[in-house]
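Re: beginner question about structure tokens

> Can someone show what the tokenized structure looks like for a real chain? I only ever see the sequence side.

Sure, here's an example I had lying around. Input first:
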Amino acid sequence: MLRRALAERRTVRYLVVVLVLLGRAAAPAAADRPPSAQSITIGSAIARALEVDSELKNLRLLHQLDAARYRVSAREFLPRLSISYSGLDSVSYAATDSHSRRLTLGAQQLVYSAGSRIRGRKLRRMELDIEELALLAAAERVALNVIELFADYLLLQHQNAILQQTWELSQQQREIAAHELVLGTVSELHYLEIDLLSRDLQLELQQGRSRQQRTKVRLQQLLRIEQPSQSAPHGRIDTEFRGYIDSAAIELYRARARTDNLDILHAQKDLQAAVEQQRRARLTWLPDIRLNADVTSSADRFPLTDHGYSVGVTFDFAVPIVPAETTVSAGRQSATERSRSVSGTVRPGDNLDAIFSRASADIEVSRKRTRRDDLLQQSDSALTELAVELDHHHLALSLLQARGSVETRRSEIERLRLQLGEITRVAFLEAEIARARLAIALTQTVVALFRTEVAILQLSGAGSFDELYDRLIVSGELS
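And the corresponding structure tokens:
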């Protein structure tokens, strides 16, 4: 099931870069441009982060090494060959000297091992799948970090733009109030209230710019950009974004999480590997059966003129406490000599670890199954919470948008009333600040909705977020 899930998993922008990391050919990404560019898009930022991330590089190298080992391990299914030569020259006093030369070609083939070789190879294949999942999960974490920082930066940029406009308005009202104070048409207290409001806005704007700059530095550090002044995030937050995930369809995402979520797939693969190991531990009482064959040529000196052979079967019982080995063989040493032999070996007190292998495998299966079940439960609970959060954001956006329309109309009326002298400049400025904070709250809620939908996609194992951030982050500058 995991192999099918990996094959069918929907992969786009950042997983394409993972394929590049795995050594497959791909076109150069937009992030390959030198950091002298003044701006960088979110897609290019994700591609660049995946390319320069050291953890992904190390995981890719380890995966390549283990894949090579897996391919080489197919050698264990082939016969083991051996070539040996021996030469003996013995000199005996008062006796005939002896000389011998022997050349032996041997072959040994494991013909039965209770499926241990096949299961062992299957386990190694599972380990490779788990490593691939770990690589995809690491890529997903890197992509999410970039998306979070990119959205934070553009949110602060939008927020600071609103604060800048409001502060400039407060400065205009402050200058007018200063002239009115000189003329004596307003009190000093009235002027000081406007001045305090303007200074508070200036302080808040400065704090927002500082947070924006720190976010930019963190993003550039993630992208390994050497020149801090270059490659600022490009785009703006679309305040009309309302998402595309319906809370009523949360069950669909819940079902997808069980088959596509990377953490759940990882746990499921661990469980399958533990079950295979358990099955292997339960068959230790079955012997390994090996065929042995030797061909020999011997003589007192070269050339070798005596030829013989032998064939045999070895039964190896790797049972605990009393492992034993029995070999039955037959052969011909020369044209006039044939032989048959039976040998056996028992090693009392050996292979004691096998006593606990089955219990250990059972415990490991229980651990992996509990881990898998816990992840499934956590995923279900998290999706339920996210569905509630999704409904909250949709309702909040609806209310904030309605209130924003009212506040805009109210601002037009109060601006007219200010010109007519029906309200003070302090009241007008306070209303404008409230309207600015409402616009900021609307943008913050839009980004919060985006993050909630990203979390849902991550839990469901969607594998891509471009359809989502392409709707939130649009090209162009702030108006």
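Each token stands for a local structural state, so reading them left to right follows the chain. The mean pLDDT is 85.
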